[in-house]
Amino acid sequence: MNEKDIIICRCEEVSYEDIVHLTELYQCSSREIKLRTRAAMGYCGGRTCRNLVDQIVSEIKNEPPADNIPLTYRPPVRPIPFRLFGGE
Amino acid sequence: MASLRIKEHPILTVDQHVPEIQFEFNGKIYTAREGDTIASALLLNGIRTLRVHEETASPRGIYCNIGHCFECRVTVNETAEKRACLTPLEDGMVIHSGQRLPTPFKKGEE
Amino acid sequence: MNQLVIVGAGPAGLSAAIAAAKNGVNVTVIDEFMKPGGRLLGQLHEESNGIWWNGVDEATNLFNEAIEFHIQFQFETSVHHVKKHSNHWDIQTDKGMFKSQALLVATGAAEHSIPLPGWTLPGVMSIGAAQVMANVHHVKPGHHGIIIGINVLSIAIARELKLAGVQLESIVLPSCNLLNKEASQPGVVFQKLAKLAHLAPSPLFKMGGFLTNKLSFLEKLVVRSFPKNGLKAWGIPIQIRRAVIEILGEEKVEGVKVADITPSGVIMKGTEKIIDVDFVCIAGGLYPLTELIGVTACPFKFIPSLGGHVPVHNEQMQTPVEKLYVAGNITGIESAKVAKAQGKVAGLSVAHDLHYLQDHNAIDDAVQHVKKMRDHALIQFHPDINKGRNELNGASITN
Ligand SMILES: Cc1cc2nc3c(=O)[nH]c(=O)nc-3n(C[C@H](O)[C@H](O)[C@H](O)COP(=O)(O)OP(=O)(O)OC[C@H]3O[C@@H](n4cnc5c(N)ncnc54)[C@H](O)[C@@H]3O)c2cc1C
Question: How far is C1 from chain A (nearest CA, A)?
């Protein structure tokens, strides 16, 4: 199986290979991986892949998940239509 | 091929007499019925691709069907980025699928 | 200003609204779906007495009761931010701002995904998507499909799809990578199902239950000699020794490439073959949808048996943040009946904290009812749920 072909973040099209490679290279946190690759930071707000990124990083670094959330949630948790910025 | 509409069900009540409505998708007219979402109406009409990825143009369709994944976003009567799975179909609705953006929009190093 | 705003009109949100409104609290419920019920809609389970438990009917009953108590509903409205002020909450939505003294977040669960080559193709959907398409909108997800991921939810929904007249090839495992170490190993998957054995009426579960009660090496034997064509549950083959390697298609799903696997999930070379399907369901399990709690000051606890990160809260459904409550699957993955029972507790707690509650035993009784529902649940998502709940209660005391 070609792991390069597995997309993890559907919104930003970040691959499994990219995430594994960068985690091994930088030995960094999943927060940093998300900021570097934009995985879990696309249109859907990370609902589909946030856990996947956390999981890959914690497997590679052999660190169990902590109680606090790796990349804190920021508002808006749903994209806001542009008209709402205009002020009604 | 047989319709994907479920016409009878051993446990659930399936109403047979729901009024039909028409809508437009990417310039073509289709028929579905009241109570459908845009997502169910398109699937019923054999349409699986609701948009293409803005950068790579890879085709995308319904994924979660409950508003979480935003894969099914379409333009409805001029309003962009509506989730097809959360939007009830209305008679005469004009729907467009998302398109690939012109290259200057593309992010990244290239 | 509202006294209570509830985000989520699932079983938890609806029953909380009713409990609070019955005691005189004025309540508004916000949901982005177009009708009430949340994920209750779509559920269809056969109880041990042979009677069908129909989520659509359950949702209708709850909604009708809510209307009687003059609860306000805002459907097709997405909440994107909540903010605490000294004595009220701002709840920001795509339809404008709501203000409320108390806030209950009952946003339920979301599905884990299982990334595989080809999974972005149209026609690949989560198992829940297929459930909602068939049971709520009465449209089949496709003509002939395959389910990837063997777990309680996928087996239950496979049966629902069969009832709706959908043709299913089989339920199989995903191929192994860092993301599905456990979900791709026949041995581990079998053991998990076996632990939940006494709860489900399928032949597979029964056999699993028998074996776990005896010897665990027998279990390994079962997995090793598991028939390649699978064991059937309600006529649907469950192929614990087969995995999907790739989803195939140009513009949409046309097929899947599968292979046989060893009991520990390693692909057996030379067994690859292609199966034609026009849809694929991915069943990766559920996790609590906590994003709105994540923008508040409420702490989290990571408890795998509850589905991952859950907001810290006590048995009364209060969080450490004043006038912030949680109920339902956001507090841990359990069946709809548990969510409904938790909702009642939360609604009563709000009524109490806003000085409306007359009957002071009501909360204790409702808390006991949650435990009873938990012990009698038709579907259990994790065998260690009680342990997880106790751990969380401990955390809420120290916090
Ligand atoms: C796809 C899926 C299938 C399931 N199938 C089963 C099953 O077959 N059997 C079973 O026992 N359990 C099943 N469950 C578990 C299910 O979560 C519980 O049974 C129960 O429905 C939980 O109730 P709840 O009230 O906590 O949340 P839900 O019923 O999920 O309701 C939450 C509501 O909140 C709304 N919401 C969420 N975020 C926002 C926001 N930001 N703004 C506005 N509205 C929002 C949602 O639209 C939803 O209507 C399933 C869960 C999922 C996700």
Answer: 20
Give C264 Cα–ligand 1 centroid separation in angstroms.
33
The answer to whether residue B38 is domain-embedded is yes
Residue C399 domain-assigned?
no
The backbone torsions φ and ψ at residue A19, rounded to the nearest 5 degrees and listed phi first, read -70, -45
pLDDT, one tens digit per residue, over A33-70 is 999 999 999 999 999 999 999 999 999 999 888 998 87
Which residues on chain C are in Cβ contact (under 8 Å) with A1?
Answer: 117, 175, 177, 245-246, 267
Q: Which of B12, B43, B68 sits opposite C133 (nearest CB)?
A: B43
CB contacts of A10 in chain B (<8 Å) are: 60, 63, 69, 71
Closest to C178 in 3D by CA, of B99, A54, B60? A54
The residue ranges of every structural domain in chain A are 3-85
| Coil/strand/helix, residue C41 | coil
Range of the domain at B90: 20-97
Are C351 and C240 contained in the same domain?
no
Stretches where chain C sits below pLDDT 50 are 201-215
B29 exposure class (CB count in 10 Å sphere: 0-12, 13-18, 19+): exposed
Q: How far apart, in whole angstroms, are the C-alpha atoms of residue A67 and residue C61? A: 38
First and final CA of chain A: distance in angstroms? 52
Q: Do B2 and C143 touch (CB under 8 A)?
A: yes
- C398 within a domain of the structure (yes/no): no
C140 and C262 belong to one structural domain: yes
Report the CATH number at residue B79.
3.10.20.440
Percent of residues, chain A, with pLDDT higher than 70:
86
Q: Tell whether C164 lies on the interface with B, counting CB pairs under 8 A.
A: yes
Question: HEC states along C275-309?
Answer: EECCEEEECCCEEECCHHHHCCCCCEEEEHHHCEE
| Domains identified in chain B, total number | 1
C137 to B4, B15, B17, B33, C130: CA distances (angstroms):
11, 11, 14, 10, 10
Same domain for C30 and C97, yes or no, is yes
Contact B63 A47 (CB under 8 A): no
Instruction: Note whether residue C202 is domain-resident.
Output: yes
DSSP symbols for C166-185: -EEEEEEEEPPSTT-TTTT-
Tell me what pLDDT residue C383 has: 81
Contact C137 B58 (CB under 8 A): no
* C197 shares a domain with C176: yes
Q: How far is A25 from chain B (nearest CA, A)?
A: 19
Mutate to test the interface with C, among B43, B49, B97 (most CBs of C within 10 A): B43
Does residue B78 sit within a domain?
yes
Domain match, C144 and C229 both: yes
Mean pLDDT over residues B41-50, rounded?
Answer: 98
**What's the CATH code of the domain at C210?**
3.50.50.60
Architecture of domain A3-85: Orthogonal Bundle (1.10)
Range of the domain at C269: 113-282
